[in-house]
């Protein structure tokens, strides 16, 4: 049984209609990163930040898992390999496709976080700056999203799994955002074979042992079929 660590990024959800941040029509074209994806931006204008993530939460709820999400869930469910998905995405499409062994390293839209006490709870569809934490009562509610300048979640667990893997696969990532962009180097130094599945070559594509490029809904199911037939 091979241990497979799979990193997924915005490209796997793009075909479900969830806009990416870095495409020419992406979300960063409408908002400055500093305004909606940093602790400082939230401190300056929490209403704007909540409105931004309320819109993203609604878009994610309206989207459906696509063939790539379902293929990864099928790979895990088959039981022939030990699969861990580490996703940079904050949507829940992997879960809704059936994946269970999953780490949201950048948090998730469907959770709320108290900036005062650290309590987490299911997020309502609409959040605002006046909502109080159900644990401590302080009006310090924020999205449970890892912003720029903050440490992604469960990094030690991810690095341990990556270095013990038999295969590392990167799907739908730009290769721009660290620490995830460095996973291929970590795997390479640990002697772990690496594969990129992406719409087009990422910034780090030359570091991968192999790469296949095309829409996620095509290249991911094809790769899963090969893994299950081997």
UniProtKB/TrEMBL annotation:
GO molecular function: histone deacetylase activity, NAD-dependent; NAD+ binding; protein-malonyllysine demalonylase activity; protein-succinyllysine desuccinylase activity; zinc ion binding
Catalytic reaction(s) noted: N(6)-acetyl-L-lysyl-[protein] + NAD(+) + H2O = 2''-O-acetyl-ADP-D-ribose + nicotinamide + L-lysyl-[protein]; N(6)-succinyl-L-lysyl-[protein] + NAD(+) + H2O = 2''-O-succinyl-ADP-D-ribose + nicotinamide + L-lysyl-[protein]
Alphabetic keyword roster: Cytoplasm, Metal-binding, NAD, Transferase, Zinc
Gene3D superfamilies: SIR2/SIRT2 'Small Domain, TPP-binding domain
Residues engaged in binding substrate: 53, 56
PROSITE patterns reported for this sequence: SIRTUIN (PS50305)
Residues where Zn(2+) binds: 114, 117, 133, 136
InterPro entries: DHS-like_NAD/FAD-binding_dom (IPR029035), NAD-dep_sirtuin_deacylases (IPR050134), Sirtuin (IPR003000), Sirtuin_cat_small_dom_sf (IPR026591), Sirtuin_class_III (IPR027546), Ssirtuin_cat_dom (IPR026590)
Cellular component aspect of the GO annotation: cytoplasm
Cofactor: how bound: Binds 1 zinc ion per subunit.
Chain sites annotated for binding NAD(+): 9-28, 88-91, 172-174, 198-200, 216
Residue span, Deacetylase sirtuin-type domain: 1-230
Compartment(s): Cytoplasm
List of catalytic residues: 106 (proton acceptor)
Cofactors that this protein relies on: Zn(2+)
Catalytic EC class: transferase
Domain of life: Bacteria
E.C. number(s) listed in UniProt: 2.3.1.286
PANTHER family: NAD-DEPENDENT PROTEIN DEACYLASE, NAD-DEPENDENT PROTEIN DEACYLASE SIRTUIN-5, MITOCHONDRIAL-RELATED
Matching HAMAP family: Sirtuin_ClassIII (MF_01121)
Similarity section: Belongs to the sirtuin family. Class III subfamily.
Role of this protein: NAD-dependent lysine deacetylase and desuccinylase that specifically removes acetyl and succinyl groups on target proteins. Modulates the activities of several proteins which are inactive in their acylated form.
Domain comment, as recorded: 2 residues (Tyr-53 and Arg-56) present in a large hydrophobic pocket are probably involved in substrate specificity. They are important for desuccinylation activity, but dispensable for deacetylation activity.
Name used for this protein in its record: NAD-dependent protein deacylase
Organism for this UniProt entry: Rhodobacter viridis
Taxonomic path: Bacteria, Pseudomonadati, Pseudomonadota, Alphaproteobacteria, Rhodobacterales
Record gene name: cobB
